[in-house]
Design goal:
Number of domains: 1
Distance between the termini: 51 Å
Order of helices and strands: HHHHH
Helix content: over 70%
Structural class: mainly alpha
Shape: globular
Number of strands: 0
Strand content: under 5%
Oligomer: single chain
Radius of gyration: 17 Å
Number of helices: 5
Largest sheet: none
């Protein structure tokens, strides 16, 4: 399958097809391993940003953006693999509501 960047950017179904293809092609367990690896790389990039100075901050922010993108892709795959879109969304709504309550108290 080939998609344009615009199709990938603007069509959630295209994104899902790509993610499902990755799970199908490489398998669930290897994708779980990749999710763990990407989580670690995100943490390292965030720590690197915290240690950065005015000369290195821009580069660190770009690296962090790259790792956030990788991690978000893997998290979406985990939701697909484990059929967790609805439970995750429900928990996010609950936690955001709780956060709002805390902010307003």
């Amino acid at each position: 399958m080939n998609y344009t960047e615009d199709q990938i950017r603007n069509n959630p179904e295209v994104r899902k097809k790509i993610l499902v293809q990755a799970i199908t092609q490489w398998g669930g367990k290897p994708q779980e391993d990749m999710a763990i690896e990407e989580s670690s790389e995100f943490i390292k990039a965030l720590m690197k940003l915290r240690r950065s100075n005015s000369l290195t901050a821009k580069k660190c922010l770009l690296e962090l953006a790259d790792e956030i993108a990788d991690l978000e892709i893997m998290l979406e795959q985990m939701k697909i693999l484990h059929e967790m879109h609805e439970p995750v969304e429900n928990i996010k709504v609950f936690k955001l509501k709780r956060l709002l309550d805390r902010l307003n108290s």
